[in-house]
Structure formats: structure tokens, C-alpha cells
Write a structure and sequence with these properties.
- A hairpin with a 5-residue loop joins strand 3 and strand 4.
- The mean pLDDT is 88.
- A six-stranded mixed beta sheet has the order 2-1-3-4-6-5.
- The two termini are 22 Å apart.
- 45% of the residues lie in helices and 13% in strands.
- It is of the alpha+beta class.
Length: 210
């Protein structure tokens, strides 16, 4: 039976030599998720120091390291939601964030790109989506739901400079959202976005009998 990435991470933490250090955490996250936390763009030393201090407190109290609490701490300090990435592993949604692919599989149907600072999001369909549907266009119902959530629909003639390296075709429309406060998009907003896309994928599965 296939285990999730969070379960794999939990196993690695259990097997990790005590006391657990930040270097041990980095090694586990890179091994399980393929993400080098210490080399993410735009980071300053403070996150590593804060995580080190937190781990020292856990070790001083000689208590078992709470995996969920650790993942939440990593999300707070590094902006990487390991729990969500694990849940999205088989969702057929590719995710490009912090200048690298966090999730990507050959048969994914949608691609999400987050810009610098995670304050904006771009959503397009994949080459595999076009292969099975015959079109680059997102389902109209999904577009309507995203527009209601606060996204805007950009036609092929328009472009978003924040995503010049996204790899999307300039003949392809996309949905785009930017936080008006120029702050990172909230996890709750990301969650609603993912649920809308997941619903669209389920409807495609039913329609195309994938």
C-alpha cells in the first residue's frame, strides 16, 4: 500500500538520530519532497535560526517531535505547506512555486504558478489536458467559479510579466489572481482554489471516462 509523503516524513523523523537538528530536518524534507528548504530564493537567515531555536526547545523538553507541528512551523517560516503538497500528490495538479516545481507529473491536467512573494497565482491547462480534451481552454464552469473567487480571465493577447518563465503558450488563455495587498496569498484561498480545480477534474473524469 502506497504511503503518503507526510507518512514517509513521519517514518524518517522516527528513525532520525536524536537530538533532531535543522540539518536533519532539511535532509528529510529534501529526501521526501525534493525541496531544499535552505536554498529557496529570497530567504534570509532568520527562518533557519528560528527553526533551530524551536527544535532546541523541543529537544530540551525531551519530548517526541510532533510531526504536524513541525510541518506547520516550516510553513510559517518557509512558506512551504508540506501537508498540502502531500494531499495534492495524486490530484493531477502541477505546482510551480519559489522558482521551482514543487509538484509535477506527466498526466497532470492543470498547472498553477505562483509569482515572487507568493502574492499572485496563474492557472493554465497542461499539454496532457489538451491531448485528452482537444482544447487548451479550461472548462467554462471552472472559469466561472474562479472568477467568482476573485480571479480574472486573461486572453492570449495579454500577458503577465510575473510569469514569463512559466512555459505557457502565448496563445493560451489563463486565470490570474493577485492579492491587492501584495501579501502572500492565504492558505485558505489556495485551498478553495485547489478544491475548485479538483471538482473540475472529477467532472472531466466523468465526462471523458478517464
Amino acid at each position: 500500500m502506497k504511503i503518503t509523503k507526510t507518512e514517509h516524513m513521519d517514518q524518517c523523523l522516527t528513525e532520525q538520530q536524536k537530538p533532531i537538528t535543522i540539518h536533519g530536518i532539511f535532509k528529510i524534507v529534501e529526501s521526501v519532497y525534493g525541496i531544499a528548504l535552505g536554498h529557496l530564493p529570497g530567504l534570509v537567515p532568520e527562518p533557519a535560526q528560528l527553526l533551530t531555536n524551536w527544535l532546541s526547545g523541543q529537544n530540551d523538553m525531551q519530548q517526541l517531535l510532533d510531526s504536524n507541528e513541525l510541518r506547520e512551523k516550516i510553513n510559517q517560516l518557509y512558506g512551504v505547506n508540506l501537508q498540502a503538497l502531500s494531499q495534492l500528490e495524486d490530484a493531477r495538479i502541477s505546482l510551480f512555486s519559489k522558482e521551482r516545481w514543487m509538484l509535477r507529473h506527466e498526466q497532470d491536467l492543470f498547472e498553477l504558478y505562483t509569482g515572487e512573494g507568493d502574492s499572485d497565482v496563474k492557472i493554465i491547462t497542461t499539454a496532457y489536458y489538451k491531448k485528452i480534451t482537444g482544447s487548451n481552454n479550461m472548462p467554462p464552469a471552472l472559469i466561472d467559479n474562479l472568477l467568482e473567487l476573485g480571479y480574472s480571465l486573461h486572453e492570449p493577447s495579454k500577458d503577465c510579466s510575473s510569469f514569463t518563465n512559466s512555459g505557457s503558450s502565448n496563445t493560451q488563455s489563463y486565470c490570474y489572481y493577485i492579492n491587492p495587498e501584495q501579501k502572500p496569498v492565504a492558505d485558505s484561498f489556495k485551498g478553495r482554489t485547489m478544491r475548485l480545480i479538483a471538482d473540475a477534474i472529477r467532472q472531466l473524469d466523468t465526462k471523458l471516462q478517464i
